[in-house]
Write a structure and sequence with these properties.
There is one protein chain. The protein is of the alpha/beta class and 351 residues long. It has a domain of 235 residues: Rossmann fold, CATH 3.40.50.720. The protein is built from 12 helices and 12 strands. The protein has a 7-stranded parallel sheet with strand order 3-2-1-4-5-6-10, with helices on both faces. Helix 1 packs across helix 8 and helix 9 crosses helix 11. The two termini are 36 Å apart.
C-alpha cells in the first residue's frame, strides 16, 4: 500500500509515519507545508527512507494536491494537517478556517476525483481517514457522560469550529457522493516531538528553566490525556479496519485537571533533575482564564476499542515520565525553538 498522509511532519502525523514504517511494509507520501510547528526531524531515521517521500506543499493548493495523487497513486489517505493551537485561533482565526476547512475541502475534492478514476478492487479498498478532535463536541461538566460518536456538535472556539466544519465536510462527501471517508476524534495528545507551545512541554521546559508555570483560572479544567504513540497505533488500525461513514472516538480514560497535570510535571521533574532552588511547584502562576475556556473534555472509547481491537497502552504517569525524559535528552531540538519564541514569538497554553 501507499498511504498519502497530510501533515506528516507535525506532532501526531510524524508519530503515525514512524509507526507505519516501523510496523508495516507500506510506503508513505507525506504532504506538509512545513509551517512553524512542523519538524522533519521528528521522522527520525525514517526521514530519508526509500518508503517515505516528503512533498512540501499546501493542502489548499488544489493543483499541488492533484499532482501528489497522480504521482504517488495512493491506496488510502490519512488527513492530519491542521492548525491546532486554540490560543492562536483566538488571536487569528482566519488561518484556521483556511487550513482546516478549505484545506479539507481541497483534499476531499482531489481524493474524490482520484477515487472516481479507480476501478475494481482498488476503488473498493480506498479509504479517506480524517483525523479530528474531541473539542468539536463542546464542553462537559462534572457528572456528564463522556463524548461518544452520537454526541451533538457544539464547538466553542475558532479552532474547534473549524475542525467541526471539516468533520461535517467529510461526512457530507460520504453521504452525498458515496465517498469512502470516515472520521476519528481524539483527546489531548502528549509525548515526544510536541511543539513547545502546548501545555505539557511548555510547563516542563518553563519549570526546567525556572520560569513561571502559567495555569489558566483555577486550573480545574479537565482533559483526557492520550500518549501520541497510542494514538498513532489507533489511527493506523482505523485506516485498515475503519468503515466508511463511521466515527471512532479514541481516548485513554485518563482525565486530569490542568493543575494536576502541572503538579505531576513538577513532581516528576523534581525527581529526575532536582532544582537547588526548591520544588518547582513554587513556580505555578495562575493567569486570567482563556476566553470561552471549555471546562471538560472526555471520550468514551469503547466503540473504537471494540471495532479496532485497540486500547491505550500508556498510563498517564508512566507516559508523562517517558515524555519528560525525552525532552531532557533532546535539548538540541527544543532549545532553538524556545530561544526564538522568547525573542518575540508568543507561546500560549493549549489545555
Amino acid at each position: 500500500m501507499i498511504i498519502l498522509i497530510t501533515g506528516g511532519c507535525g506532532f501526531i502525523g510524524s508519530a503515525v509515519i514512524r509507526h507505519l514504517l516501523a510496523t508495516t511494509d507500506h510506503a508513505v507520501a507525506n504532504i506538509d507545508i512545513l509551517s512553524y510547528a512542523a519538524s522533519p526531524e521528528a521522522l527520525e531515521g525514517w526521514r530519508h527512507h526509500p518508503r517515505h517521500t516528503l512533498i512540501q506543499a499546501d493542502i489548499c493548493d488544489l493543483d499541488a494536491v492533484r499532482a501528489a495523487f497522480r504521482t504517488h497513486r495512493p491506496t488510502a489517505v490519512m488527513h492530519l494537517a491542521a492548525e491546532s493551537h486554540v490560543d492562536r485561533s483566538i488571536d487569528g482565526p482566519a488561518a484556521f478556517i483556511r487550513t482546516n476547512v478549505v484545506g479539507t475541502q481541497v483534499m476531499l475534492e482531489a481524493a474524490r476525483e482520484y477515487w472516481n478514476g479507480l476501478e475494481g478492487a482498488a476503488k473498493a479498498a480506498f479509504r479517506f481517514h480524517h483525523v479530528s478532535t474531541d473539542e468539536v463536541f463542546g464542553s462537559l461538566y462534572p457528572g456528564d457522560a463522556p463524548f461518544t460518536p452520537e454526541t451533538p456538535y457544539d464547538p466553542r472556539s475558532p479552532y474547534s469550529a473549524s475542525k467541526a466544519g471539516s468533520d461535517h465536510l467529510v461526512r457530507a462527501w460520504n453521504h452525498t457522493y458515496g465517498f469512502p471517508s470516515f472520521v476519528s476524534n481524539t483527546t489531548n495528545n502528549y509525548g515526544p516531538w510536541q511543539f513547545p507551545e502546548k501545555l505539557i512541554p511548555l510547563v516542563m521546559l518553563n519549570a526546567l528553566e525556572g520560569r513561571p508555570l502559567p495555569v489558566y483560572g483555577k486550573g480545574d479544567n479537565i482533559r483526557d490525556w492520550l500518549h501520541v504513540e497510542d494514538h498513532a497505533e489507533a489511527l493506523v488500525l482505523a485506516l485498515f479496519r475503519g468503515a466508511p461513514g463511521a466515527t471512532y472516538c479514541i481516548g485513554p480514560r485518563q482525565e486530569r485537571t490542568n493543575l494536576e497535570v502541572v503538579q505531576a510535571i513538577c513532581t516528576t521533574l523534581d525527581r529526575l533533575r532536582p532544582d537547588p532552588a526548591g520544588p518547582r511547584a513554587r513556580l505555578i502562576t495562575y493567569v486570567a482564564d482563556r476566553p470561552g475556556h471549555d471546562f471538560r473534555y472526555a471520550m468514551d472509547p469503547g466503540g473504537a476499542e471494540a471495532a479496532l481491537g485497540w486500547k491505550a497502552r500508556h498510563d498517564f504517569e508512566g507516559g508523562l515520565e517517558h515524555t519528560i525524559r525525552w525532552y531532557l535528552d533532546h535539548e538540541a531540538w527544543w532549545r532553538p525553538i524556545r530561544d526564538k519564541a522568547y525573542a518575540g514569538q508568543r507561546l500560549g497554553v493549549k489545555a
